[in-house]
Design brief:
Elements: H1 2-15, H2 20-27, H3 33-45, H4 51-62, H5 68-77, H6 82-93, H7 96-107, H8 115-127, H9 132-140
């Protein structure tokens, strides 16, 4: 059972990075909690499993499409400890306004002209996890500031 459990864990990690919580959930049907905890501890000691590395790659792969609040929520859902969440998000928090502008520009052609279109565009950016401050800045920018 232990060899099969280890093989499954290595197969999963070979495809992509996983958080410790994700790997625990995926291995739950194949072994008992003690065997899984022991295996994951060995994988962490050998450097094959790392929540910090997972968080960094997760943020890097999604930062162009989502705001900091959404990334924070998704990392917490995947069981990443607060310390690693903070480190992973530190690199993208400064450029949230630029990322919000880029996401907005892909979706919309023109600035909002009335309250209805402003609300629609704001809801879109909000659903992507951008802060209210970033949303207001993007929707109030003058057209000549677009890149």
């Amino acid at each position: 059972m232990s060899d099969a459990l280890r093989e499954k864990a290595l197969r999963l990690l070979a495809r992509r990075e996983h958080s410790r919580a994700e790997l625990t959930r995926k291995l739950r049907d194949d072994g008992d909690d003690e065997a899984i905890a022991t295996l994951l501890a060995r994988l962490e000691d050998s450097g094959l499993l790392s929540d910090a590395r997972f968080a960094g790659q997760f943020v890097a792969s999604r930062a162009a499409r989502f705001g900091t609040r959404r990334l924070l929520h998704d990392l917490k859902q995947r069981g990443i400890p607060d310390s690693e969440v903070g480190e992973a998000l530190a690199s993208v928090e400064q450029d949230e306004h630029a990322r919000a502008r880029a996401v907005w520009a892909k979706k919309f052609d023109d600035r909002p002209t009335d309250a209805k279109s402003w609300a629609k565009q704001a809801r879109f950016l909000q659903s992507r996890g951008f802060s209210a401050d970033s949303i207001h800045k993007v929707l109030r920018e003058q057209p000549e500031q677009d890149e």
